[in-house]
Amino acid sequence: MKIARALATSRLIWDRVMGPGYNKRVLRIGREFYAPFVHSVFGGRDVPPSASILDVGSGPGLITLLLAEEYSHAQVVGVDYSPRQVRAAQRLLSRETVANCTFEVGNAVDLPFKSESFAMVVSTFSISCWPDMRKGLEEIRRVLAQGGEAVIVDADSSSTQDEIRAFTRAYAEGSACRGLHEWFTRRFVFGPAVAITHGRAEELAREAGFESVEAEKRPGMPFFRLSLRK
User: Fold this and answer.
1) Beta-strand (E) ranges in the chain?
2) Structural domain harbouring 52
3) What predicted TM-score, i.e. pTM, was given to this entire model?
């Protein structure tokens, strides 16, 4: 279990091994998969005009770009601790016509931003890769403006095998190494050595100082959503 956890939190592994493969899968399934997801999970929030939104663990940048489109009146910043992932996101951005989006290198447990800088903070499938989840949540609370909301989505290790299997099969559809992708996703994304339960996520958020905490497992899906307010 310690080996799996070390691999999931290693910058070198993400730069050289896991990141490139993850990026290919994200961009292959693309907007058709992620646009409805972003709208249903992150859409409809009351974000003031000209406010800033932070995406922690932005990876190849697709979700960040979709957020920028969803909130075209706001400035969206994606931050990732892997320089290679940030370069991949910037390449994706260069092919789009989205003007309210930027990417930069930064660590979730030591965010390079002033306190109360963002009206909204989001993170998707990233918290399980942080070396210290509570510290990362403390940092999110620090940079979140008073009255703002943080929304975090990640794999829920309490998910049923049927939920995980259905997701991994859809996620690996069309892959030349579908069987390997299914095994890797079950072991290193949803496995208890890396992922946490929605109940544990709620505990960590309260330990990080959030008083308003709502944690729910997505119905029929192997994910949890954590909604936090200062």
Assistant:
1) 52-56, 75-80, 101-105, 118-124, 144-155, 212-217, 223-229
2) 2-155+195-229
3) 0.84
